[in-house]
Write the structure tokens for this entry.
Amino acid sequence: MKLLKCCLLFFTFLPQSSWANTMTLDSYLESLKREDLELKRFVHQRVQTRFNKDLSLPNAGWLTQITHTYGIASGVAKSRTSETTASVTKNFRDTGTNLNLSYNENDLADRAEEVRSAQVAQSLIRNPLGLRTGQIEDRIKEENRVVFLQVLESYEDYVAEKIIQYLDLILAYENLKTAQSLYSDIQKLWKEVNKRKDNNIALGVDVDRATAQKLQFERAVLEAKISLQSLQKSLVAAFDRSKPINFTPQKEIPFIKKDMDLSQKPLEAQRTMEILAARETAASFEISQRKRDLYPEGEFILGYRHDESQRFSTIVNREETVFGLNFEYSFDNTLNEAQVDQAQYNKTQVEIERIRTKKELDALLSDLKQRIQIQNQRVKLLSRQQVVLKRLIGGEQGRFTRGRVDLETLINTQNTYAQVRFDLVAQKIELAKNIVRWKQNTDQLISEESLQQTSSNN
């Protein structure tokens, strides 16, 4: 039982250097790009930009139709008939032109027909020279831009969340190292008190006080180890399960620099505002398109027809050129009018959202900048306090050995020093988190090129 307890203590306070390899923040993010399914889901959303145009416009391909029927008549005079129809149509949506080529061959009881025709219809009002198509394409271009920016925004938000989790891992790791260091110091003090007790210099209450302090830091080490292991599992949950769970984060806390750059683009140039601006532009194109749908439709028709048929006892062999106009207008078109109203409503909603978002973003960035500045001051003060307390503990330990400082005073100083060490790491991590949030909200955490590279790798 004693051997088992010794083994347990050994693994509990095992130095971090004997663990598995270090996983830096960069290597962690690279693993995310390769293996995290949630990140791949965000990137895959870009695929919809490939088919948005074709979903909103008429089919631009060649449409071929062939129909053949064969009939057998029953009765006194039995006969057989056949009818064949073939056509090819094409919509040239960039010019608003429709082409139709057809061929009909009918072998009936009273006639034999063979007709070839070609016809071109050109829109004159709704889509002259592809004007309406151009409006749709401009709208889709803006909508695709919105999709791309939203994917980039979601990608950045997710990466920021994972970076913050990694910072929590650094905090847990640093807390464990701090707890181990403090535990080592209190062990020395505990041994010193027991030695003095054996020499009748210290009292039993002094031994109990040192033992309580030792148990306190022993529990702190254990809790820090459990917290670290939990975060390790959480960070690699999306990875290949063959990866080792026990790994250490990088030693340096990222994003913290002496001269932090808190510059930013103008609010209108922020990605969030770009998304709303693109949505507003798309809504304007939508209004123009829907208003054009209220126009009457006029088409100029030009065609050619060759009829080579025998109907009853008459033989026909005729070629003709056909031209004319097709006019179409729907009075009181409630559907298209509602679509115009809906497009105008959507645009107004985006305008309101843009104004509201701009105010919120401005307030958020001002708050983050203030937090970073205050947090930076806290880190500086705690760093100075740690140096002073470390020097004070060294002096008090010497005075305690000489009997000039009581144990309670020394323990109180050690507790204060321990709290400052823990607070310093926590404040540094909080500073780094605020900088990550700043970069996240000023579009400095992820670049468009990064998303492009991730898309090409997947």
Summary: The CA atoms of residues 95 and 130 lie 4 Å apart. The chain is about 60% helix and 20% strand. Residues 1-19 have pLDDT under 50 and may be disordered.
